[in-house]
TrEMBL record:
Designated name of the protein: NUDIX domain-containing protein
Coiled coil: none
PROSITE patterns given in the database record: NUDIX (PS51462)
Domain Nudix hydrolase: 56-217
Taxonomy, superkingdom: Bacteria
Length: 229
């Protein structure tokens, strides 16, 4: 029996998470619908949608690394793009989930191993739509999808990015201690923490709004996870 294509499984995982996500921002919901159509295609999840070599347009996975107080964000200065942005990049053959790809990229590009996913996956063997156990605490609230995205952002790329022409980025969130030691990767020239309301010169024009939307998404899920009353 031929084993399933890992990229096809990753595409299905990406589609499942996008299907379950209910963004706070209507603009994100509209764009997420385009993402679902891009990944789904005409005959089910498309493996080429998540592969770096699947064509000039493909999904990428990124991670907004935040302080637990949501007042600081970790950014890298992208070597090719020449801008400050959240960490992230292409999926790799060993990635089994899109969220896992985002957290792997975050560790590789920041050097911080002790990242805490905001919206962790359930334990192995627990279905994505399983209800939490009675009395169990939840970061995101009952019924929310584990490792649901917090951001989708489609952007065209300059010639410096080679054969890649458009990245359909899917963003997740993890927390880290701003005092944790960071290491600059080969993809970047620097990595540093910044106040969320004092971003450095050189961030893309739309990044402040994008970050504000991510923070609103996180706050919304935190409120949804609080006990009634």
């Amino acid at each position: 029996m031929t084993p399933p294509d890992p990229a096809a499984l990753l595409a299905r995982d990406a589609l499942d998470r996008l299907d379950r996500w209910e963004p706070v921002d209507p603009r994100q919901e509209a764009l997420a619908a385009e993402y679902r159509a891009f990944v789904r295609g005409d005959a089910g999840p498309r493996a080429e949608a998540v592969r770096r070599d699947g064509g000039p347009q493909h999904l990428t996975a990124s991670c907004f690394v935040l302080s637990t107080g949501l007042d600081r964000v970790l950014l890298c200065f992208h070597r090719k793009g020449r801008f400050w942005v959240q960490v992230g990049g292409h999926t790799e053959p060993e990635d089994t989930t899109l969220a896992g790809a985002a957290y792997r990229e975050a560790r590789e590009e920041s050097g911080i191993e002790d990242l805490v996913p905001f919206d962790p996956d359930p334990e192995p063997g627990v279905p994505l739509d399983a209800d939490p156990e009675p009395g169990a605490e939840s970061v995101v609230g009952a019924g929310a999808a584990p490792s649901a995205p917090v951001d989708v952002h489609r952007h065209d790329l300059a010639a410096a990015f080679g054969t890649c022409r458009t990245h359909w980025d899917v963003g997740f969130v993890a927390f880290a201690d701003p005092d944790a030691r960071t290491v600059v990767s080969d993809e970047s020239e620097d990595v540093a923490w910044f106040p969320v309301d004092a971003l450095p010169p050189g961030t893309p024009d739309d990044f402040p709004v994008r970050l504000a939307t991510v923070l609103a998404e996180v706050r919304h899920r935190r409120r949804a996870g609080l006990p009634a009353g």
